[in-house]
Specification:
Layout lengths: L1 H5 L5 H5 L5 E4 L12 E9 L4 E5 L2 E10 L2 E8 L3 H5 L5 E11 L2 E10 L4 E4 L8 H13 L10 H6 L5 H9 L4 H25 L17 H6 L7 H14 L6 E6 L5 H14 L3 E5 L3 H14 L7 E4 L5 H12 L5 E4 L13 E6 L7 H9 L7 E6 L5 H8 L3 E5 L10 E5 L4 H13 L3 E5 L11 H14 L8 E4 L5 H13 L4 E4 L12 E6 L7 H8 L10 E5 L4 H8 L3 H18 L16 H16 L4 H22 L3
Parallel strand pairs: 5-7, 9-14, 9-15, 10-12, 10-13, 11-12, 13-14, 16-21, 17-19, 17-20, 18-19, 20-21
Antiparallel strand pairs: 1-8, 2-4, 2-6, 3-4, 4-5, 6-7
Helix pairs in contact: 6-7, 7-14, 7-21, 7-22, 9-10, 14-21, 18-20
The protein binds adenosine-5'-diphosphate and magnesium ion (MG).
Magnesium ion binds next to helix 10.
């Protein structure tokens, strides 16, 4: 079936692994008096037959239900048949979202259910009615005994896990929420175990790496030829990186440093050593915007080193691309900067010695790894840069064994960004502020959220575009407005950024494409629309786009004041913020489980305790000679699974 194939579901196991994204539990409806805002299940009688009204073409059915504890108003929009189907005194079981209004809570657009139970909710597959999908699952579940359990019985017992058969039954057709939990634990355990196994077994033991001693170049030699004095953290980090790279074992190092801590200069420093030692260096950035910016910076900063730099992007002209590819193949091009185009199969490096990924958490595992697998004989050194700090145990799961350097120091002369939460009612004042700033020569960003849970991939574009259009009709137009978003045409994107870089446009309206890396010191105001839609770390990253010069900078978060957003007004410390984010939303969110931007999506990763449990389980199997056979079996499955998981989640 095409709809299934489109979602990467090509066999029974694929179908079974298409797990519900949540469950509706109607086993124990809540007394009306205890309902709070949010999703809820209620059971009661209708006080009267529902009424149907029309407002400007929209229908509205109103009803009230009552139980022994209270009365709850109910509204259905655009479901006129509800008025016909429901009668006074009828007993109903409802599931929906209670929302707070002036006069109290109202249950909006609830589903009317027939039986109590636990109902799995799947992410809809475009082109496949949920009924059809549900029937398919039923069919598959009834023939489930054909599926083999990849985990050995002994392991299941030791870690109190249910078998795969049970897990699938419980996940897709649970009788209660306990079963859901049992299934989730088992499936997440399995997934985390295989994921780690796959990641770790792709790391070659004792492999030879490029030896860069012969360059006879020290990290302090690099800093001497750079126009600024390094921070202590930059100096120390680069020193350690040079030590690693002068060792003929492939380096695997992650540099974690807050926004603006100067990771790029450190990366360039590493690149120079590789190039001095006669190797090529590839630098992969998550967006074209950032790749271009790195390329410009490299041309400036690395001029004294006579490095030849190439830029490789997805949407390049064929002729240009061919020339660059030739120069990469014959070694003329020493530093290759680009998006994931730098790891595409058509790129043949003459001798890649160092692979750098910037903002590495934005890439899929597969991409990071294939950069390492590019080299034929020697494995290049790997350097990853990230502004998002993650716990060590998680880093181990995601990247296998790597060393971490923390850069906890900002270059001097930064003015900390001040942050304020701004209610919608102050929007006009905000625009006035932006206008005043523009007239005095300072620039602003206006960022719109991505609506990631929407089926409509273009909703991202719409929100930025519609804001842009409405501002073009306002007096802000005079100060120069530019618009950019991910799916924009290449030339338009370039033009917008050019206008903002050169100051022709004072205001840049965009989506989160500017989240990472963009560096325009003259920009002093960051406005984030619907701030509540973003993760804290993401907001912090966005805020890091301003405060890059010596002028006072502000970040305005549009939205309702709440505790989460107040974290940002209280601190500018990215590590502190990441910790809060981790507590509140789990690491999956922190790293971005969104499909957008090729991020990671590892089932179970939000459960830090399970991450720890599975990683020690793996260690144990690995180190026990009696379990060698089990280990080899699991490893085989892990590698098969890993490839497939990558296909399904679209990491490639
Ligand atoms: P990030 O760590 O967020 O990637 P960047 O590498 O983009 O930060 O650096 C932010 C800005 O700070 C850049 O304009 C860079 O040139 C500048 N910078 C980096 N290191 C120093 C330093 N030691 N002194 C002064 N400016 C620096
Ligand atoms: Mg950066």
């Amino acid at each position: 079936m095409q709809a299934l194939a489109n979602a990467g579901i090509t066999d029974i196991s694929g179908l079974l692994n298409y797990l519900p994204r949540k469950y509706i539990n109607t086993l124990s409806p809540l007394p009306i008096s205890q309902v709070k805002p949010g999703e809820t299940c209620l059971e009661g009688h209708l006080l009267a037959t529902p009424t149907l009204q029309y407002y400007g073409g929209r229908s509205m059915v109103r009803a009230k239900i009552t139980d022994s504890s209270g009365v709850m108003p109910v509204i259905w929009f655009n479901q006129p048949w509800m008025a016909k189907n429901l009668k006074k005194d009828q007993k109903v079981l409802l599931y929906g979202a209670a929302k707070r209004f002036k006069n109290g809570l109202i249950l909006q657009n609830p589903k009317v259910l027939h039986d109590k139970g636990v109902i799995p909710q799947y992410k809809p597959l475009p082109g496949l009615p949920s009924k059809v999908f549900s029937n398919l699952i039923d069919q598959v579940i009834s023939s489930l005994d054909k599926i083999q359990d990849p985990l050995p019985e002994a392991l299941l017992q030791e870690y109190h896990l249910c078998g795969l058969h049970e897990a699938m039954l419980y996940a897709h057709r649970p009788k209660n929420m306990d079963q859901v939990q049992i299934a989730e634990r088992r499936l997440a355990f399995e997934n985390l175990l295989f994921f780690q196994l796959a990641v770790s077994s792709q790391q070659a033991d004792n492999a030879a790496g490029p030896d860069m001693r012969k360059a006879g170049f020290k990290s302090d030699d690099f800093w001497e030829m750079i126009p600024f004095k390094p921070t202590g953290a930059q100096r120390e980090t680069l020193r350690v990186i040079y030590e690693d790279m002068k060792n003929p074992v492939p380096m695997r190092r992650l540099v974690q440093g807050d926004v603006g801590s100067g990771k790029t200069a450190v990366a360039f420093g590493a690149a120079v050593l590789a190039i001095k030692a006669g190797y090529q260096c590839a630098l992969m950035a998550p967006t074209e915007l950032l790749a271009r910016q790195h390329h410009n910076n490299a041309l400036k900063l690395l001029a004294p080193f006579n490095v030849s730099c190439g830029l490789l992007l997805g949407g390049m002209k064929a002729q240009e691309r061919r020339e660059t590819l030739e120069q990469i193949a014959d070694g003329t091009c020493q530093l290759i900067i680009g998006t994931h185009a730098v790891i595409s199969k058509s790129v043949n490096y003459q001798n890649l010695g160092l692979a750098i990924t910037d903002e590495q958490h934005r890439f899929g595992v597969r991409q990071r790894q294939s950069l390492a697998e590019r080299a034929d004989e020697i494995i290049p050194h790997i350097l990853a840069l990230s502004a998002t700090p993650i716990p060590r145990s998680l880093a181990l799961v995601l990247y296998g064994d790597l060393k971490i350097s923390v850069m906890d120091e900002l270059p001097p002369g930064r003015t900390p960004v001040k942050t304020r939460i701004v209610p919608e009612s102050k929007r006009r004042d905000l625009y006035q502020y932006i206008r005043d700033k523009a007239l005095s020569g300072e620039q602003s960003y206006l960022v719109c959220p991505l609506v990631t849970d929407s089926e409509d991939a273009d909703s991202e574009k719409k929100s930025a575009v519609s804001l842009f259009n409405s501002l073009m009709a306002s007096s802000l137009k005079e100060v120069g407005l530019a618009l950019t978003y991910g799916s924009q045409k290449e030339e338009e994107k370039n033009r917008a950024m050019e206008e903002f870089y050169t100051g022709k446009a004072s205001v840049l309206i965009s989506t989160t494409v500017i989240e990472v890396g963009v560096d325009v010191p003259n920009a002093t105001t960051m406005v984030i629309e619907d701030a509540e839609n973003f993760g804290l770390s993401q907001l912090h990253q966005l805020r890091g786009r301003v405060g890059r010069g010596d002028k006072e900078s502000w970040c305005f978060l549009l939205g309702e004041e709440n505790e989460r957003l107040r974290t940002l007004t209280g601190t500018n410390d990215g590590f502190e913020i990441a910790k809060k984010d981790l507590e509140q939303r789990g690491p999956g969110e922190l790293l971005g489980t969104r499909q957008h931007g090729r991020m990671l999506n590892v089932y179970g990763i939000n459960d830090i305790r399970l991450v720890d449990e599975t990683s020690s389980c793996l260690e144990q199997i690995k180190n026990d000679p009696k379990k060698k056979e089990i280990y080899e079996d699991l490893k085989k499955t892990a590698l098969e699974r890993f490839e497939k998981a990558i296909r399904i989640t679209g990491l490639q």
